[in-house]
Amino acid sequence: MPASRALTIALFVGLVALALFPLFGDKYYIQLLTKIMIMAIFAMSLDLLVGYTGLVSLGHAAFFGLAGYVLAMMAPQDAAASLWITLPAALGGAALAALIIGFLVLRTSGIYFIMVTLAFAQMLFFFIHDSKYFGGSDGAYVYFRPTAALTGVQLFDLENFNHFYYVVLALMAGVYVLLQVILRSPFGAVIVGIRTNEHRMRSLGYPTFRYKLVCFVIGGTVAGLAGYFNAAQFGFVNPELLSWHQSGIALMMVLLGGMGTLFGPVLGAFAMILLEQLFQGLTEHWLLVMGGFIIAVVLFLPHGLYGLAAQLGRKREAEND
Amino acid sequence: MDLNIFLIQFLNGIQYGLLLFLVASGLTLIFGIMGIINLAHGSFYMVGAYLAFAFTRATGNLGLAILLGLAAAVVLGLVLERALIRVLYQRDHLYQVLLTYGLILVFEELRSVLFGNDVHGVPIPQWLSYSIPLTDTLSYPVYRVAISGVCVALVAGMYYLINRTRLGMMIRAGASNREMVQSLGINIKLIYTAVFALGVALAAFAGMIAAPIASVFPGMGNQILIISFVVVVIGGIGSITGTLLSALLIGLADTFGQVLLPELAGMTVYLVMALMLLWRPQGMFRKSA
Fold it and tell me: Which of residues 9-68 of B touch A (CB under 8 A)?
C-alpha cells in the first residue's frame, strides 16, 4: 500500500474516531481531548514556521497567550462576551503582534533567531506580568464562555462541553485543511524553497523577507486561535501561557510527532499531553521524567513518531519484496 | 537623581554586567566555536549557586566551597559534553534547543528534589562583610567590589587565553575551520570538550559568587539565561570584546531601568535589544554575514 494512501486512511479513521468519541466518553475525557486538540492547533501553527519555513521560533507562545489575554480583557464579569467580536479581536491582536515582532526578529536568522524570538516572548511576558492592568502574576478570569449568538440565532453553545468539543474539532480539521491548501499553493512552494536554500530563492527574485513575514503572521494568528479557545475552555489566563516553557513544549510536540508534516504536530500533541498525564500520575517530580524523555527523543527518535512509522513501513515493504 | 545614589546604581550596574559577562561569554564561546545553542547554560549558573550553598553549609567557608564547586562544575561539563552534547554537533539547531531544554527540566527538578523550593541565603565571608562609607548615610559593600575585581581579572585572563596562548589559537582556528584544524593534527574533539567545560565552569562560578548577594532560588537559571541571550545578541556571537561591552550595557540598562522606570523594569533590556536589532541586526561586533 503506498504511504500516502495509508496516511489518508489513518487520518480519516482518526477523524471519525474523534467525531464519535463524545457518544461514549465521559466528561473528563471529552474535556481532555478538547485541550489536546487546542494544543494540536497550536503545534500545527508552529510547524508551519519550524518544519516548513525553517524558522525555529522559541517564542511562539507569545501569540497563544496574547490572544487569551485579549479575550480575558474584553470579557465582562457579569455576562458572556460575543464570540463574533472577541474572536476577531483576539486574532487581530495576535496577528498585529506577530507582524511587529516578525518584522524585528526576521532581520536575524539561525541561532540569533532562536534567541531573539525567546527574548521578545519574554518581553511580552514581563509586560503582562508586571502590569496591574492585566492582573499581574495572578492572571485574569474569563467568567463566562463567549456566546455565539448572532441576531438572536445561536448555532452552538460553548458552555456545553460537547458543543465546545465539536467546535474545536471542526477548527482543528479546518486549520489542517487551510494550512494544507496554503502549503500546496505557489506560496507554499516558495516558503519550502526558503527553508532549503534562501539564497537561491532570493537570487530567483523572491522577496524572501516578505514571504517569511507573511508566514510568521499566519503562524502567529493560528496560534492566537488556539490561545483564544484555550482561555475560553479554562476560563482563566496567566502569564505562564506566554512563557518559554509553553513554547518549548509546543516545539517538542512538533518534533515528537514529526516535523514538516501537518499531522505530525497533531500526533505529537496527543502523545505529549497523554504522557504528561501519565508521568504526573507516577510521581510528584514528573518534570524530571519529562526532561529525560525529551532528551531520549532527541537522541533516539530524531524524525519523530512519523519517521518511526515510515521506517517500519519501509522495512515491511522490503521484507515483502 | 542624587549623585551618590547615581554612583551606587552605576557600580551595581557594572557589577551585574560583569557577572552577566561570565555567563554570556561561555554561551558565546560554546556557540562560536562548537556551533551549539545551549539553553541549559542558565542551569549551570543555578547549579553553581546551589553548590555554593550546599558546600558553604557543609564546610562553613565560601572560598573552599567555591573551589569544590568549581571542581564539580568542570566534571559536570566534561560528562555532559561526552554523553550528550557531542551527539548534537552534526544536528540542526532545533535538536540542540530541545535536548538542552530537556536538560533544564532535569536540572530544575533535581534542584527541587535535593533542595526544595525555598529561597536560601549564603553568608558573605566575615573578612568581606563590611562596607565602604561614601557619605554619612550611604555606603557600598566591599563584597560587591570584590566580585567586580574578580570578574575583571577573569575578563583579562580570558582575553589572554583566547588571543595570546597556543590553546587560544587552536580554539580560534577550530571556530573558523574545523576540518582544516583536524587535518593539521590537532585533536578538535578535545578542544570542544575543554571549551564546554570552561563555559560550564564560568557560568557556575558566576552563580557561586553571586549567591551571597542574590540569594539562591528556583528559576534563577532561566532568568539569567534569557538576559545572557540578549547580551549575546547585542554583542555579536563569538566576540569576547562585544560580549563584554554588551554585558556592561545591559547591566547598566537593567539597573537604571529598575530605578527610573519601575513600571517597565522587566522590559528595559528587551527594549534595548529591539532598538539594537533595528540598527545592527548582526550585533555590535560581527561582520554582516
Answer: 31, 37
Residue B279 lies in a domain: no
Task: State residue A315's pLDDT score.
Answer: 82
Q: Is residue B224 part of a domain?
A: no
ipTM rounded to 2 decimals? 0.90
Tens digit of each residue's pLDDT (9 = 90 or more) over B55-110: 999 998 899 999 999 999 999 999 999 999 999 988 889 999 999 999 999 999 99
Mean pLDDT (chain A, rounded):
91
Q: Are B234 and B139 in contact (CB under 8 A)?
A: no
User: B103 vs A297: CB contact, 8 Å cut-off?
Assistant: no
pLDDT on residue A1: 53
Q: Does A317 touch chain B (CB under 8 A)?
A: no
Contact B150, B158 (CB under 8 A): no
Q: What is the pTM of this model?
A: 0.92
Q: Name which of A105, A120, A252 is nearest B98 (Cβ-Cβ).
A: A252
User: Does residue B264 lie in a domain region?
Assistant: no
How close, in Å, is residue B237 to chain A by CA atoms? 8
**Cβ A274 vs Cβ B86: under 8 Å:** no
Tally of structural domains, chain B: 1
Q: Domain residue spans in chain A? A: 26-244
Domain with B54 in it: 3-219
B260 inside 8 A of chain A by CB: no
B121, part of any domain:
yes
Predicted pLDDT of residue B270: 87
pLDDT of residue B289: 38
> Residue A145 in contact with residue A86, Cβ under 8 Å?
no
